[in-house]
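call fold(seq) -> tokens
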Amino acid sequence: MITEEQKSYYLVKAPKITGRSYSDVVRKARRDYNSIAKRTNRNPYVRSPHFNKEKVFLNLFWQHVMQKHEGDRKKRLRYFNCAIELLEKSRVAPITKRNPNGRNELVHRFTGKTSTGEIFYVQVKEEIGSGRKYFMSVFPEQK
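ret:
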């Protein structure tokens, strides 16, 4: 029997990015990002089945993650592949709230679980007026 708590996350198959140093992790994450960016001449995006295959733009993620200190960046970038898979394949409903920092924005928080059992969260910002969606952040569950 499956409980409600077990159904609330998406189980990703993509492995976390490995590497001892920050430079190893960021190099691998950028490589994966650039492979997605090559598909289009404009803003890189993935299509999400949860949003009826609408585009979720990825460029805001890099601006957001570069504002963090190096240790936090490394933790977040390790989950980049997992976050992309979750956005591309998950139909699990996220938690949606109004953005307290932007009145005309919604924030969708998806929950994912790696194959090794680690919980992580993916945040997508949606502009209410235009309906554009932006991949904002990915971060592990705090213990």
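The beta strands are 10-11, 45-48, 54-57, 95-98, 105-113, 119-127, 133-140.
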